[in-house]
Amino acid sequence: MTVRERLREKISAAFYRHGLLCASYPVPIILFTSASILACCYPLLRLPLPGTGPVEFTTRVRDYTVPSHEPQGDLGERPDWYRGPPVAYIQQVLVKAAVSPWDSTLVPVDVFRSPLGRVFSLLEEIRNHVHNDGSGVRSLEALCLQVTDLLPGLRRMQTVLPEHGCLLVSPGNYWQNQRELFDSDPDLLKTVHQHEPKGLHTSATLRDLLFGVPVKHTGVSLYSRKRVVTYTITMVLGSYDARFLSSLRARLRQLHPSVNCSLREDHMVHVHFKEEIGMAELIPLVTTYIILFAYIYFSTRKIDMVKSKWGLALAAVVTVLSSLLMSVGLCTLFGLTPTLNGGEIFPYLVVVIGLENVLVLTKSVVSTPVDLEVKLRIAQGLSNESWSIMKNMATELCIILIGYFTLVPAIQEFCLFAVVGLVSDFFLQMFFFTTVLSIDIRRMELADLNRRLPAEAGMPPPKPGPLRPREAPPPPRPSPYTITLQTPAFRNLRLPKRLRVVYFLARTRLAQRFIMVGTVIWIGILAYTDPAGLRTYLAAQVSEQSPLGEGGAGGLPPHLGGASVFPGAGGDPASTLSVLPAPAEPTPLPENQSQGHHGAPREGVPHQAQAPPLVPQISWGAEDEEGWRRLSFRHWPSLFSYYNITLAKRYISILPVIPVTLHLSPREAIETRHPQDTRHPPPPSLKTNDLPADLTFIGTYGEGSKQVINPPSLSRVAALGLAAGVLLVLLLFCLYRVLCPRNYGQNGVAHGRRRRGDLPCDDYGYSPPISEISPLLLRGHSMDIECLASDGMLLASCCLAGQIRVWDAQTGDYTHTCHNLGGGTEPGGGVFDEDEGYPLRRRTTPRPALFEDQPDLTPLIDTNFDSQPPSHLLLTPPRDGFDFGGLVERAYLEHEPPSPGLTASYPSPSPPSGPPPQRRRSLGAVWAMELRGNLIAAGRSSGKLELWDAVEGSLRCSNEDGVSGITALAFLNNRIVAARLDGSLDFFTVDINKPLGLLQYRGPPGRSNIPPSPCYSSEDVISCQLTRSVQCAHQKPITVLRAAAGRVVTGSQDHTVRVYRLEDSCCLFTLQGHSGGITAIYIDQTMVLASGGQDGAICLWDVLTGSRVSHVYGHRGDVTSLVCTTSCVISSGLDDLISIWDRSTGIKLYSIQQEVGCGASLGVISESLLVTGGQGCVSFWDLNFGDLLQTVYLGQSSDGQGVRQLVVLNNAAIVCDFGSELSLVYVPSVLEKLD
Amino acid sequence: MFLCFQGVGDVSGQGPYIAGITNRNTNLGIRGFMLFSIGVFLALVLNLLQVQRNVTLFPPDVISSIFSSAWWVPPCCGTASAMIGLLYPCIDSRLGEPHKFKREWSSVMRCVAVFVGINHASAKVDFANNVQLSLTLAALSIGLWWTFDRSRSGFGLGVVIALLATLSTQLLVYNGVFQYTSPDFLYIRSWLPCIFFAGVITMGNIGRQLALYECKRMSGKTHQD
């Protein structure tokens, strides 16, 4: 034992104990884990929240000093970024200007032309301001932030933004700070607009930058109702000089006093900016996140076979995420502050840590035997994977360690995080996830238990197979009907819940109504908020009536305005002043007013009081105090970024604004007018006063809005609409994918379980045309049918009573030529001990009456038992369309109820049973039966092998070499292989001593594509000799025996599969790989071997080399049945799941959830048609899509017995047992396909 | 890209259905196109990462910077990745040693993520000197190969293609057809081979995974015959 092995064993043992611990105390462990997660994440609280929003810090202006670089510990509230000088100081001069009093001669352009024009003089004033005190002369030029070139990409802004000098921005920049350009500009708005970016923009625009206030607050538009223009002159200072600034402030205040201004001036705000994440940086980030999600998706998709797949997937993700958080928390705790960008490295951390271990754990635990206790399962699963988990972890740690030695700080930090993350992830996997898994598995077992209990009550034992107890209750009395035709209307529609919900919605039209209401509300909102819409109108109405609403209507007495809605309220005294002046000659304004406003601003104060109604209100409110807050938070960074100065991780200090109030006289406004200004607005009519002016103004407002406001708002609405449309389409698509029961040919989503109830058709919609499939019931057995064998032409069945019946499985056009002479030949051994009674029965009499009962069935029954015995008793000529109902047989039963043996009338001419050979259970039950040619090989529980003539019903030979019961038989060519209960395997050779005419084919040869089976005639002497007996072929009873392509494959409870060659009975391979007894084996002509075991595993083997091709765990509990097609493997298990696997890759394509207790029998009719047996019904599935094509009910009551055996005949019919009856179902559509 | 993979899953999940209506060449074409688009996408994104290294703050017209490099670079990358992605399964089948190591989409996604991460690291992390950068990237690339490939053929092909690609890039640069955006010439030269190697491994991984479906189809066909 090497060190490695010892280590491995120790690790395995430790994991086993740990698994036991976790599964035993789930709740305390989860609590403990959660507590430790929280404890480790606690240091994270101190970290700043991620985000790019700026952070503010306010200090007093009075005692401001530039903070030093060294952190000072004593200032607790001081943020740690507040260190060193800021990038810049921002000093804004907030100008509010208005033309007052407003009169009707003024055109809308006057609102802003002259106020804007004043910016040049203000700028001049500011630029030339020099503060001179004892220490020296300071000017703005010395203090301001000197900027150089704009970024190369900003050529088009070159004319607007300053270069090579002070960074001083104001609206004057639009005109290169030259008054002449401004005066000669015919359309100011156009100039402003032409610099605006096209389309939708979220960050600061040039207009915001230059005006320094949000667009809608500037008042620079043709219809601003307040008629107050607001803009700022923004100075960016490189250094702070309190005295210069205060002198500037005093000077400006002196020149342009703001009377009612009470802005606080004692606080400056420092704004710290986070790192900016640009579009270009986002694209790789988004890509990595997409890859991450794809990874998580593909990983969690593999979780299967658990109670709640999504719960476990969530637990896996939680495990990884919280391990990351824990690692960050721990690193912070030990003084290692993360300097890396968390969002960027996060996906890589997740990828490095990975979800693999979690998935491996789940898989391992799930694949442990289901019958174990949960604790043991968890422990076993853990210890199975312990070595690989430890190995992986060691490898990853090594790789990360190598990364640590790259000595690059960033990589080292990443590695440190990854190491701590890995360790904490391991911890969480071991404690958190394992416990969650144990809880899940326990829940699953409970659910299984609850589900199984009622099912077992009304069901045959859950493990069908040769080891099933042979006792069975007496068969129920058949009800008086033969064939059930299922019309689509009667087809049982068990709608799934989601469909019911949808139908409920559809009935009540909830969604439609909801959408309608929503649309109405939306339209209402649109109409209200539309600039040209309702709100404007309402506002206009209100403004007409309220004295304070509009600047111009300020003097309107409330009683008058309230009296009339119409503009005819011209009688108000204030308007008389302005009725007279015509728009062409605006000069004759009242002298006193113009003088008052034109004069020194100091005089404006009394004058405002004197003529308040006509003066636009310039008010200073708290919102003006920090007007920059209303700007985009990207305002300052974008301003600086134009000069390639980044504000990321730096701060700026914003000084208190300097308020400037400007009152301009109408005369000044008119003087500064550009000749073209008057062309824009329609000339006000002569009889207009203020109110009509207002109204026409509103009228132009509507048009103007289309030109000015509408472009951005239209584009915004269009973008919103587009987004909403895309969202709607996506939503509908999702709904469609979720709700549509058929996903047309896309199995990608079909990995979930498909319920039987998901019929492709429904009451509400389209029902695909399916050719009607009608089952044909073959009755005659008195007890449950035990064995079923067919070679395509004949059908042999054996019931628990030991009765063997042979049926013809042909279509009606077949004429049979075999002669039934069995009645005369008394089989040896006294098997037919009741045979004496049969010839005496009178059958002719009841028959016509019976047929009268069922006249309609005649065309439906394809089977025509022409194998009419030319019996010596009754020479009934074979008739076309002769009906063989079980009724006849049942009638006989009723005729002679006390003697069930009499039903075993052997060469009965009774049509339904054809020639049913039959015997009593005198020598043990028949456990296995095979049919080849016209020989029936039957293996008995006594170990006796019998060969019967299927046509004549005579025992041709028997062999009693073995004593152990024959559990399985294979009959291939002239060899019979019998598997016995003691695990031995006997090979027999059937010898026919017949000189001539040995091989005949029954039926047209083109019809059958199976290898020709010889037809033995009754004259032949058939002997059956034991050629070889393999004792102890298996340690335990052989459960499955299959033969094909010259190979015999046995599966046993000793977990192994053996492959023998048929010719020389030589054991070729012993295939090991299952961890439970073998329950199902499939082998076909192409040497494909599949085996399924009690462990729920399915193995695919290469018969030529004996190697295992693939190994998948497909079921909880036994695999009950396995079938392969050329491309896929279909398995059914005790968990009522039918899984379809890809044959070459072993990937599960999809699975079908059946009802409880159904999924035992399977058959493949053609490459794409699967048939499964259910409770009293068989279902046909489309293999390509997993769609249920049709369910055929075998009896009227669907709660009857389940179909346990299902044999697919090669003429596209299937035979299945149904209690004591056989059911022959033709699939006509497949016939066409096969041809 | 996710949708793209999703599409792959959907298409191939149909198994026999699709296999019935597509022939070998169509399948090859689909695979090639898919690999091509993945290559183009990765080239654009990774180019963006490299661009970021040189410029601190972007001018507003960011999107144009995606295409700041020569226009023919992404198609070239796409073509190369399609060739590599088709070459890998082909070589596997020629050598007769089918690649069995970690053949799942989740593993492939992990590989792609690590590849992007290597690029990210080379773009974002400041290394002391170029030797260190080269060594780190080489270690990371070999780690990538060990984690996701572990086949000798993969390694050999990766090295050969990486060398060829580096050589051809150098030739292009010497002939003046193509210029690096960065003046730091050695920097580029030091990471180029490693990035190429990692890229070859990644694309080979994707190509193999895509070819898996074709293999399945072919085997199904032979069985049918």
Concise summary:
By secondary structure, chain A is α+β, with helices and mostly antiparallel strands.
Describe this structure in words.
The complex is a heterodimer of chains A (1235) and B (225). Chain A has 1235 residues and is an alpha+beta fold. Chain A is 33% helix and 20% strand. Chain A contains 29 helices and 43 strands. In chain A, helix 1 (3-24) packs across helix 14 (374-404) and helix 13 (356-366) packs parallel to helix 15 (409-457). The two termini of chain A are 64 Å apart. Mean pLDDT of chain A is 68; it is low at 454-494, 544-613, 682-712, 740-771, 811-922, 996-1015 and 1230-1235. With 225 residues, chain B is an all-alpha fold. In chain B, helix 7 packs parallel to helix 9 (185-224). The radius of gyration of chain B is 19 Å and the shape is globular. The two termini of chain B are 36 Å apart. Chains A and B meet through helix 10, helix 12 and helix 14 of A and helix 1, helix 2, helix 3, helix 4 and helix 6 of B. Chain A: It comes from Oncorhynchus tshawytscha (Chinook salmon). Chain A: Pfam families: Beta-prop_SCAP (PF24017), SCAP_N (PF24006), Sterol-sensing (PF12349). Chain A: It is found in: Cytoplasmic vesicle, COPII-coated vesicle membrane; Endoplasmic reticulum; Golgi apparatus membrane. Chain A: This is Sterol regulatory element-binding protein cleavage-activating protein. Chain A: The chain crosses the membrane at residues 20-45, 277-298, 310-336, 348-372, 393-411, 717-739.
